[in-house]
């Protein structure tokens, strides 16, 4: 893989999760453009820099040791990428402070460098949180590849920060330079809430949660077919989102021991709030993580999963396949993975390569619910 070169450093960077023959880079031209602009403007050694949505640490590793750097994002894999890439380039682990998006990064900051995220609600929440966190004369610059830069991103910067000037495109990347103005403290529209009838739940959804305005249609197809167990079953909701699958299962299975895991910090934050609202102090394990990578082998009886088919802007079944492999390793012999998926994704054939038996539990014209037995 090529090295990432900027005026600040030359780095060997990898994506997370790491895979052999990775076809994609851990950086792009928008990262290069941001750092070139920062260098051109001049960066003082004591400058306080906030990085938002730095995918795998390209920006943070470049600036580590050259300023007081705080990086904040909603991806556990992004944080893992930062940690791995700092170590890979012999940079001190404490050279960058990481703040999950479920928490607030506290300024004041002299520079805010933003990679525009796929979910504009996340960008909006991040811009709202900048109110009162900018030092006098602070500069706010957002960057994206042109094909991933909606007009609404500039509108949000103008609404919450101030007038925006768009740069010329360089290598198909563009910068949005916002000039901070005094504004009234904004009210955040997040988290959002919606209600379910079966089971009767009100679900909280923080800004970066998938389908935060209403239950996604895959989960809607899955819920009526969730298994029920009366014993002390050990269950994981893998890629839990707002926690609805795990919570619905737990309500019907009072002795089950649940683990809810997602790589989004805001998803885990939402799931925790929803679990407490529905189930009070009933014990549960909630964590942001790389799927079931940290789960002990042969420690689960059941895994529930509505697998994602994208990572940031990249679409594909790599993450789903990885989740299936993780589930197989974590399940006891005879344990089951239950999933819902679009018919056209062909998960049935993929699961047959890993599991002893695969059955179709339910189907509609768009989705299938599958049970795979180890």
From TrEMBL:
<dbReference type="InterPro" id="IPR007848">
    <property type="entry name" value="Small_mtfrase_dom"/>
</dbReference>
<dbReference type="InterPro" id="IPR017237">
    <property type="entry name" value="RLMG"/>
</dbReference>
<protein>
    <recommendedName>
        <fullName>Ribosomal RNA large subunit methyltransferase G</fullName>
        <ecNumber>2.1.1.174</ecNumber>
    </recommendedName>
</protein>
<comment type="similarity">
    <text>Belongs to the methyltransferase superfamily. RlmG family.</text>
</comment>
<dbReference type="GO" id="GO:0008168">
    <property type="term" value="F:methyltransferase activity"/>
</dbReference>
<keyword id="KW-0949">S-adenosyl-L-methionine</keyword>
<dbReference type="InterPro" id="IPR002052">
    <property type="entry name" value="DNA_methylase_N6_adenine_CS"/>
</dbReference>
<keyword id="KW-0489">Methyltransferase</keyword>
<dbReference type="InterPro" id="IPR058679">
    <property type="entry name" value="RlmG_N"/>
</dbReference>
<dbReference type="InterPro" id="IPR029063">
    <property type="entry name" value="SAM-dependent_MTases_sf"/>
</dbReference>
<comment type="function">
    <text>Specifically methylates the guanine in position 1835 (m2G1835) of 23S rRNA.</text>
</comment>
<dbReference type="InterPro" id="IPR046977">
    <property type="entry name" value="RsmC/RlmG"/>
</dbReference>
<dbReference type="GO" id="GO:0032259">
    <property type="term" value="P:methylation"/>
</dbReference>
<keyword id="KW-0808">Transferase</keyword>
<dbReference type="Pfam" id="PF26049">
    <property type="entry name" value="RLMG_N"/>
</dbReference>
<feature type="domain" description="Methyltransferase small">
    <location>
        <begin position="201"/>
        <end position="371"/>
    </location>
</feature>
<keyword id="KW-0698">rRNA processing</keyword>
<keyword id="KW-0963">Cytoplasm</keyword>
<dbReference type="Pfam" id="PF05175">
    <property type="entry name" value="MTS"/>
</dbReference>
<feature type="domain" description="RlmG N-terminal">
    <location>
        <begin position="1"/>
        <end position="181"/>
    </location>
</feature>
